[in-house]
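hey team, just a heads up i'm posting the complex here instead of the shared drive bc the drive is being weird again. everything in one block, sequence lines first with there labels, then the predicted structure for the whole assembly after. its two chains so it's a bit long, scroll down
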Amino acid sequence: MLAEKHRSEIDALLAKYPADQSRSAVLPLLYLAQHEYGSITDEAIDEIAELVGINPTQVASLVGFYTLFHESEGGRYRIQICTDLPCALRGAVTFAQELCAQLGIRMGETTSDGLITVEEVKCLAACDRAPMFQLQDDEGIHYHEHQTVESAMALIEMLRKRHSDG
Amino acid sequence: MAEHILLRHRDIPDIDQLAVYRKHGGFEAFKAAVTGKTPQEVVDIVKAAGLRGRGGAGFPAGVKWGFLSANVFPRYVVANADESEPGTFKDRELLERNPYQFLEGVAICCYAAQAETAYVYCRGEFWDLAHELERKIEALHDADLLGERIFGTNFNLNIYVHLGAGAYICGEETALLESLEGKLGQPRLRPPFPAAEGLYAKPTVVNNVETLTNLPPILAHGTDWYRSIGTEKSPGPKIFCLSGHVEKPGNYELPLGTTFRELIFEHGGGIAGGRAIKAILPAGASAPLLPATDEVLDTPMDYESVPKVGSQLGSASVIVMDETVDIAWLSQKTTNFFKHESCGKCTPCREGTYWMNNILTRINQGHAKAEDIDLLESVARGMTGKCLCALGEFSVMPVLSGLDLFRSDFESHIGDGR
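-- predicted structure starts here --
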C-alpha cells in the first residue's frame, strides 16, 4: 500500500497545496505509484482516489490523458525518441529505425529480454541536440542528447549489465 | 549583444550556485522591491519597460498583472515551464543553467501580484531539472530569501514545483491551471480570465519562464536601459531557438528586431551542406510557414513585423528547412503532432486534426486523388476560427500556408487514388 510505505512522502506532496485542494496532488501521486508498481495498476487508482478524495474513474481518466503514465508494464527501460519535425530534420527518424533494427524490434516493441522498449514521442524541447531520446526508468526520466546508434547501444549494454548484476 | 542578460550562465561560470548568483547582484532587485517599493510601483515599472510575454502571445506582462481582481486574496503566481512547442528549447536552458535569475523573477512577480504562493508548472519530461529546481528553492529558504517575513517585512512567499505528465495542451494557460488542480488538461472557456478566476478560482498570474527571467534585470537596471534594447514596441532581449537545417542550431539571445537573415546566416552559420534555404517556421508548428525570400529574410523578428509578412513571432522557435524538404511531409509532421496533442474537448479540433492527418497520410503515401488536396484545404478552412483554444487554430496554419506557398509539393504525390 502506498499510504503505508510512503506516508511521509505523501504528506509532503499534499502539503504543497491548500488543505481543501488535495486533488492537485493526483499527478504527483500517480508518479509515486508508477515508480512503486512499474505501471498504474487498478489498486493504485483506488488508493490514489481515496487519498485525494475523488472518484477512481476520475483518476483513471487522467492516466489515459497524460502520456507519461502507463497502464501496462513495458520494458524495464523505455527509450522514447523524439521524431517530431525539428528532430526529424536532423536525422531522428533514421536514427530511430536503425536503433530498432539493431535491437531486432519494431517501433513500440520490447526486446525479448523484457528490458528495453523503444517508442516515438513528440517534441521534448531538445531540438538543437537531435537525435535525442528520454530514458524512462523506475526512478524518473533522463535526457540523452547528441545520440548515434553506437552511443545508444552503449547505453543499452550498460543498462543490461546493470540489470544482470542486480 | 556583448553580455547576455538572460543566458548569463554563458558569461558567468557557476551562476547556478546561489553564492555566485548573489555575488553578481542576485536577489538585490527582489530585496530593493520588497523593502523599498510598493507592489503597484513594481507593476508600473514592468508596464513602463514594455516587457511582453515571451510564451508566444506577446501580451504586455505588466498590463496582465494589472487585471488582477482588486482586494481578492489569496492570489497565485504560476510559472509556465511546460515548454512543448516543437522547436522551442529556451526555457529549459534557463531553468537548468540560470535557475536563480528565473526564481528571483518569480519572487518579484509574486511581490507585485501580492501572491504568497507560486507554482512552477514543469512539463513531466523535465524530471531531472524539476528535482534540481526543488533543491535550489530549498537553498533560498536556507538563505531566508523565501519563507516568512522576508527581509523583516510582512511579505511571505513559498514557491513549489509541480510536474505535468506529458500533454502539450497544458502550455495553454487555462489548461495548465486545470492540470494543476488535478484535472484533465483541457482549456477553460474565457472569460473569466485567470487574473479574475485562475487557480482554485482565485486571481492568478500565469507567465512564461523567459518572461519572468526578464524581471530581475528590468528592476536592477531600469526601464530606460531595457527600452534601449530591441524595438520601440517590442523592447528587450529575446532568446531565439534556432533548429532544423542550420550549421549551428541552438539558443541565441539577441535584441527583438534582429532579422531572420542575421539569426540564420550570421549566428546559425547558414544552411548545412551549402544547400539553399526553402522555408522557415518562425514560431514552431504554431504559425504559418514563410518562404525564404529576401523580403522575409530581411524582416525584423519582433511582434509587429513578422505578421506583416504573413506569420507570427510566437515563442521565436525558428525552424529552418532547406531545399530538400517536402512541404507535404512537413505538413503531415505538424498535423500529426496536433492530432496527438488535441485534448478532445472541442469538436473542430478533435475531428479536424484527425481528418487532416488521415488525408495527409494518404497524400504522403501516394494513395490520394487530386480532389483530396481540395478536401484537405476545406477541412482546414472549416476549423479556422471555430476552435476553443489556440491549439486547434494553430494546427491548420502550416497546412494552409503550405498549400498556399508550395502546392506543387502536395500535387507531386497525387496518384490514381488507389
